[in-house]
């Protein structure tokens, strides 16, 4: 009887630990663009990569990113312009060219974060703010 209780308890603890493990692997959603979740470190990586291209006068691969963002939607960013847009990828990789996806990190000429915007949920080629 004691062996059965021990095996049952051990099995239950193993199952509980196994079920809890994947939750620990989730990234924190500091920003949400459409259905994409971004941590602050994801945002910093994209921002820093984009800003490095601006400082060097280059672009990622054969793309046009980063480039000046004209803010036609009139977002109220917490930092002063000139603004630049650079893709942030839901895969967690840093953009290096190719398809940019829908989401962008916006920063200014001093490298300060202005915000995140997305084409997801916007009409045409417009952007909406990420949450």
UniProtKB/TrEMBL annotation:
The keyword Magnesium does not apply. Gene3D superfamilies: Microbial ribonucleases. It is an enzyme of class 4 (lyase). Its EC number is 4.6.1.24. Belongs to the ribonuclease N1/T1 family. Keywords: Disulfide bond, Endonuclease, Hydrolase, Lyase, Nuclease, Signal. One of its GO terms (molecular function) is RNA binding. This is ribonuclease T1. It comes from Aspergillus cristatus. Residues 1-20 form the signal peptide.
């Amino acid at each position: 009887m004691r062996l059965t209780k021990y095996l049952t308890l051990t099995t239950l603890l193993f199952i509980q630990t196994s079920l809890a493990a994947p939750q620990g692997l989730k990234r924190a959603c500091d920003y949400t663009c459409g259905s994409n979740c971004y941590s602050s470190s994801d945002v910093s990586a994209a921002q820093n990569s984009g800003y490095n291209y601006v400082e060097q006068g280059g672009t990622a691969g054969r793309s046009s990113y980063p480039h000046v963002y004209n803010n036609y939607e009139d977002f109220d960013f917490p930092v002063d312009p000139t603004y630049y847009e650079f893709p942030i990828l839901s895969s967690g990789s840093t953009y290096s060219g190719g398809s940019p996806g829908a989401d962008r990190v916006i920063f200014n000429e001093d490298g300060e974060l202005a915000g995140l915007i997305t084409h997801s949920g916007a009409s045409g080629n417009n952007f909406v703010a990420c949450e």
